[in-house]
Design goal:
single chain, 20% strand, alpha+beta, 2 strands, two-stranded parallel sheet
């Protein structure tokens, strides 16, 4: 998605017409990202995207 379309996307989120959180299947710590990447060689463990965060 080109950056020029971000404002329209943010408007849709603010209006409640787009719910990006529904795309997230799992939130993991960044320390676990390597294992999650290696697991991508196999079948999906869950539907949705995996988001890696930095604890702290």
């Amino acid at each position: 998605m080109p950056a020029r379309e971000y404002p329209a996307m943010v408007r849709l989120i603010a209006e409640g017409r787009l719910a990006p959180q529904q795309l997230v299947g799992e939130v993991i710590d960044l320390a676990d990202a390597g294992a999650a990447l290696m697991a991508m060689d196999g079948p999906p463990a869950h539907p949705g995207l995996t988001v890696a965060t930095v604890a702290g």
